[in-house]
Amino acid sequence: MESFVFDHVRGVGSDSAYVALYSPVANASAIRKRIMDASKMEGEEGERERDAINFAFIDATLITSRLHLQTAIHQAILAESQNSLRTKTVHSEILFALNPTNNITEAIRRYGVSDSSRALLVVHIGPGHRSSLSETENKMKKAVEGVLKPLGELEELTDWQRIKKYHRLNTADDEDHASVNDFVISAVAMKTVMQ
């Protein structure tokens, strides 16, 4: 697991992102069902269950690079710090930032965990404390049945054809991954400006 600190929002509460890459993942459909069930639960039981899965579960095959992921996380943290979330949580805001359109449901369907997900990035936004790191890591291990991989292996999992399809990059050269990466990073960074 790695952590990223966003100094420009330090002291606001959510200034760090904890990220883990799991591939392969054996329980994607169970995670998806758990998220859906937790959203409907009430009372203390619902609060405990939502806390246990308080992550962004991202289909890792749709992330082109570490910078692509960091840009989406940055945009979500910035939106939260400015009280301008367009989704219910900072974690769903990451999925929204990754999607090229403004359709929240589509963003969750495309970039979130699905029954067929085999590789997941699990992200938790929170305060940057040492205790938070170990607690978050334990929660991730309890939620995901998969092999923890170094984040450096992310680009080996990328499904460039699906990314080009979602971003309507039909003319891009199949081997020109650097240009596609640059485009999707720019799209995430500019999304709030273009609205």
TrEMBL record:
UniProt entry keywords in alphabetical sequence: Nucleus, tRNA processing
InterPro entries named among the record's database cross-references: CGI121/TPRKB, CGI121/TPRKB_sf
SUPFAM superfamilies xrefs: PF0523-like (SSF143870)
Principal place of residence: nucleus
GO biological process, one term: tRNA threonylcarbamoyladenosine modification
Subcellular location(s) per record: Nucleus
Keyword Calcium on entry: no
GO CC field: cytosol; EKC/KEOPS complex; nucleus
Cited PANTHER family: CGI-121 FAMILY MEMBER, EKC_KEOPS COMPLEX SUBUNIT TPRKB
Functional description taken from the UniProt entry: Component of the EKC/KEOPS complex that is required for the formation of a threonylcarbamoyl group on adenosine at position 37 (t(6)A37) in tRNAs that read codons beginning with adenine. The complex is probably involved in the transfer of the threonylcarbamoyl moiety of threonylcarbamoyl-AMP (TC-AMP) to the N6 group of A37. CGI121 acts as an allosteric effector that regulates the t(6)A activity of the complex. The EKC/KEOPS complex also promotes both telomere uncapping and telomere elongation. The complex is required for efficient recruitment of transcriptional coactivators.
Similarity comment: Belongs to the CGI121/TPRKB family.
Protein name in the entry: EKC/KEOPS complex subunit CGI121
Provenance organism: Marasmius oreades (fairy-ring Marasmius)
